[in-house]
Amino acid sequence: MKFTLGTKQHMTQVFSEDGAVHPATVLSAGPMTVTQVKTKATDGYDAVQVAFGSRKEKNISKAVRGHLKGVNARFIKEFRTADPSAYKVGDRIDLSAFAAGDLVEVSAVSKGKGYQSVIKRHGFSGQPRSHGQKHSENAPGSISGGLRNKVPKGMRMAGRMGGERITVKNLTVVGVNPETNELLISGAVPGRRGTLVEVRG
Which CATH class is domain 32-93? Predict the structure, then answer.
């Protein structure tokens, strides 16, 4: 399994050989440093912990600073792996494992959209716009029966939208540039510019 961490930069377009234009997202997926290797014997599961990015040392707690052992990192993430013995602490992981045409899944936190009604948040059609309707075009309608005396769990209602972890599968790697640590992925990727993005292949 191949994986990397990156930050979302911007969107662009890529032309295929037949002249068709395809939207693509540019990720700044710099090299990662292995900070811990977890095995079933010691931790109960196989995984690799990696560090990515950089930040001021004064903004890193002493506990994390001691765990990183001199590695300056902004993000720390884990990736499950079937062969943890292939990694050791201090290894650098770059984009050499990725190639154009690879299918990947991308995980990131989506943009926050604030408090939204059920029409935007859940795709409801709303109430009729005529025949005596007055101020309830965006109302959700009935939320329960009269004898229940409470709102059922999981009832779709208005509320805060966005700011959730979203995974998009079956995206295609359009291009890889190991020199500039840039990864081009077809289509849109969740999140705003600067959002941490996890890529798994």
Answer: alpha beta
